[in-house]
Amino acid sequence: MKLHAALAVSIGAVACLANDPLTPDKVEADINTQELQRNLWNFNHIANKNGGNRAAGLPGYKASVDYVLERAQKRFYKQMDTWVQPFNHTFEQTREIWVRGPDGNKVYAITLLYNTATPVPEGITAPLIDTPVDDARGSGCFEDQWAGIDATGKLALVKRGTCAISDKLKLARAHGALGVILYNQSPGENIGGATLGADNVGKLVPVAVTTLENGQAWKARLAAGEVLTVTLYVDAFVEQRESWNVISETKEGDPDSVVVLGAHLDGVQAGPGINDDGSGSTALLELMGSFKKYRGFKNKVRFCWWGAEENGLIGSLYYTSQLSETEADRIKYYFNYDMIGSPFPIYSVYKNENSGVGASALFDYINSQGKPAEYGEFGSDSDYVGFVDLGIPSSGIFTGAGAPTDPCYHLKCDNLDNIDYDALTINAKAAGRVAAQFALSLEGVPTRSKKVTRDSRGRTNKPLKGNNVV
């Protein structure tokens, strides 16, 4: 009898746990820094074992997908429905890049995503021709800035900044340049990467980015009348590769009323991508682990890890392009978490005229934790684009890209030391608390707006989160 009583108590306790009602307080309490760090450690370990990155089209990304699936499909299969959405994307990789300066020595240079190859193995050796600096409008960004410049058969020296780099390269090509030596707008070798956009493959001249110091020194020598000859070498290739979105949603909740949380799982080829966007990915993993414990919520919650964001929002744009009108109507809100642990963070909450209580709830929670929340506008630089363009109410959190908020943005040093763990924890708790609130009730949430202001479907050339294309 005592054994039966004990079993009854045990079964009752399990039943009670399985029926534990969801509350925002419980989800907030479930999120802790140690578990967020654990996932980031694993993402960093994956990168270290796979060539130093987790970029789409490379083994580190597939290993990151497997890491998420191990949790969502194997551990949480009783509470979550999980699937992989495959898609093809244009993959580019630079195998080697270098610049030999006018004194015959190789100088510091980095490549850009979707770069154009030079002839291999000889590269391009040509005279350097200067272009005007216009920091206000952007140097080499407009046709009038190229007036009187005959770059035929030469390498154009152009300063980085303000406008899309692809615009500079198109104009250089139109004026006969064989390639461009782009010098950075900030001093030092801490040069952030950029994407030229898959849409521009075949339309641009080869390019290498060197330091501000090199560019200014060569500019001064050209102004003094010297003839400078430089060699540019880019060994790059482009091909179609498969990638994947990982999607996992709660079994409980109305399938016609879905709250979507998204973060991109891929990083750049230059580094492990721990802040960008391991920070958002670990937050979603911990939120999923919290939600699977509870019951009693009205609206379904869908967690999405997007692929090939760094290539131009490819995964999320594919996802939104495949939604029928009925499926889009079922998504009541989208939250985007891309870079939420920058080492010197701002606390920016995305907001537009259709963000409603989602934005204000995030804003209020962050402020309640003693952090200076601010509202920021949506741009065309992260995975919210496809949802905003479909008129789906949206918000999210962003803590900054590039100096001063994240000096390791898109660099090798975006590793475990490149996180403000206090910011990450607060933002993950904010995301969890608001997601739980929305799972229980959508009171005050605006309806979907059918006014699409931009065509995001299939677009791949994007100004990424700060200084990425400029």
Automatic annotation (TrEMBL):
InterPro entries: M28_fam, PA_dom_sf, PA_domain, Peptidase_M28. GO terms for molecular function: metal ion binding; metalloexopeptidase activity. Its EC number is 3.4.-.-. Residues 125-218 form the PA domain. Residues 1-18 form the signal peptide. Its cofactor is Zn(2+). Pfam families: PA, Peptidase_M28. CDD domains: PA_SaNapH_like. Keywords: Hydrolase, Metal-binding, Protease, Signal, Zinc. Residues 245-431 form the Peptidase M28 domain. Coiled coil: none annotated. GO terms for biological process: proteolysis. Residues 449-470 are annotated as: Disordered. Belongs to the peptidase M28 family. M28B subfamily. This is Peptide hydrolase. It comes from Thyridium curvatum.
